[in-house]
Task: inverse folding
């Protein structure tokens, strides 16, 4: 009996991203980094500022969850993760 290693299927070559796709990705990553830094700075400013920021983010989570679509639910999950890490 001959044992053979199963052959892997060839993956379709993914096309190179367009300059527009690259710039959108860079803009998104930049916006996320600036948002995280701003939130961290405000949370560290004072206990009152941290409480106000948590309340504002909780309202955003409620709004995102109310939309009940995959993108908004994923965003809500990201904000909740941010809140947990900041606690």
Result:
């Amino acid at each position: 009996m001959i044992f053979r290693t199963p052959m892997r299927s060839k993956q379709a070559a993914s096309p190179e991203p367009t300059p527009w796709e690259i710039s959108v990705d860079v803009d998104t990553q930049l916006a996320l980094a600036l948002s995280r830094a701003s939130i961290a700075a405000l949370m560290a400013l004072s206990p009152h500022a941290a409480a106000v920021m948590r309340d504002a983010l909780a309202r955003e989570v409620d709004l995102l969850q109310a939309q009940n679509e995959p993108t908004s639910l994923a965003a809500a999950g990201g904000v909740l993760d941010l809140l947990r890490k900041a606690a």
Q: What stands out?
A: The longest helix spans residues 19-45. The chain has a mean pLDDT of 85. Residues 7 and 17 are 29 Å apart (CA to CA).
